[in-house]
Specification:
- The chain is of the alpha+beta class and about 290 residues long.
- The chain has four domains: about 35 residues; about 100 residues, Helix Hairpins (Orthogonal Bundle); about 55 residues, SH3 type barrels, CATH 2.30.30; about 80 residues, Alpha-Beta Plaits.
- It has seven helices and eight strands.
- The strands form two sheets. Strands 4-3-2-1-5 form a five-stranded antiparallel β-sheet. A three-stranded antiparallel β-sheet has the order 6-8-7, with helices on one face.
- Strand 2 and strand 3 form a beta hairpin.
- The N and C termini lie far apart (about 135 Å).
- This is Mechanosensitive ion channel family protein.
- It comes from Paenibacillus filicis.
- It is a multi-pass membrane protein.
């Protein structure tokens, strides 16, 4: 009988210990939630977090307004920079400022909960370093794309040559640039691989036309015909910005003499101007029966 009562007494003792422990926990909890200092401290933390959030939002608004004002000033620049490019720069700078302010805001809020930010920042640094090593080409593309846009190296619609690729720029992004060749091919070029660019759309072009005639031809007569012909071509062609010039004899060969004509024209129009002037010169020389090799 004594052995049968021993487990029962042990169970009763365990229940009493559990009830005593629960009573102690409940008393501590009630004391915690009824402690005025706890509520005052919590209220101060909430107020600090709210203040940090409001200040962060104000800083973001002020930074965005400053960027917008910078873009407006840039648009009024007498150089007349590309509007699309300035908007892209403004959006990019606004996003960067927003990310920075939000990151600092999150760190300050975590600090209000007495979270040790040292290990957190160290871990974030290690993760960022790992991502940087794993995505070096992507980071290089983005950084190069930013400077292409910021430095106004070329714009959409410009005719450029990037390495062996030549064509019209269709799109400039932070990661890639799209170039369409005159035969229709689309070149997608990562910005990080762009090391040298030739832009044909910034300044006027120069059309160079060499006119070969027979060695027995009257050079002065040919020269006068060329001057009259290119003068008419200048009046009819709106792509020419100046009246073309006959520079004179360029080369003297065994059976021919070559005269050179130059014509300053609008950007990217030298090929069409050359073809039109060549056609006019050919017709005049045939009409005057001047022999061409």
């Amino acid at each position: 009988m004594y052995r049968t009562q021993l487990p029962l007494l042990t169970e009763v003792k365990t229940i009493k210990e559990w009830e005593q422990s629960w009573f102690t926990v409940r008393q501590k909890f009630v004391g915690y939630i009824t402690d005025p200092e706890i509520w005052v401290g919590l209220l101060l933390v909430v107020l600090k977090i709210a203040l940090i959030y409001i200040v962060a939002r104000l800083l973001t608004k002020i930074a965005q307004r400053a960027v917008e004002q910078l873009i407006i000033t840039r648009d009024k620049n007498p150089l007349k920079l590309d509007t699309r490019r300035t908007k892209t720069i403004g959006k990019l700078m606004g996003n960067i400022l927003t990310y920075v302010v939000n990151f600092i805001m999150i760190l300050m809020i975590l600090g209000q909960f007495n979270i040790n930010l040292g290990p957190l920042l160290a871990g974030a640094g290690v993760v960022g370093l790992a991502i940087g090593f794993g995505a070096q080409s992507l980071v290089k593309d983005v950084i190069t794309g930013f400077f292409i846009i910021f430095e106004d190296q070329f714009a959409v619609g410009d005719v450029v040559q990037i390495g062996t690729f030549k064509g019209t720029v269709e799109e400039i992004g932070l990661r890639i640039t799209r170039v369409r060749s005159w035969t229709g091919e689309i070149y997608i070029i990562p910005n990080g691989t762009i090391t040298q660019v030739t832009n044909f759309s910034i300044h006027n072009s120069l059309a160079v036309i060499d006119v070969p005639v027979s060695r027995e031809s009257d050079v002065e007569k040919v020269r006068k015909l060329l001057e009259d012909t290119i003068k008419k071509g200048y009046e009819e062609n709106s792509d020419l910005v100046k009246e073309p010039q006959v520079l004179g004899v360029q080369t003297v060969g065994g059976s021919e003499i070559t005269l050179r004509v130059t014509a300053e024209c609008k950007p990217n129009t030298s090929s069409s101007v050359t073809r039109k002037l060549n056609d006019k010169i050919r017709k005049v020389l045939q009409e005057q029966q001047i022999d061409m090799p």
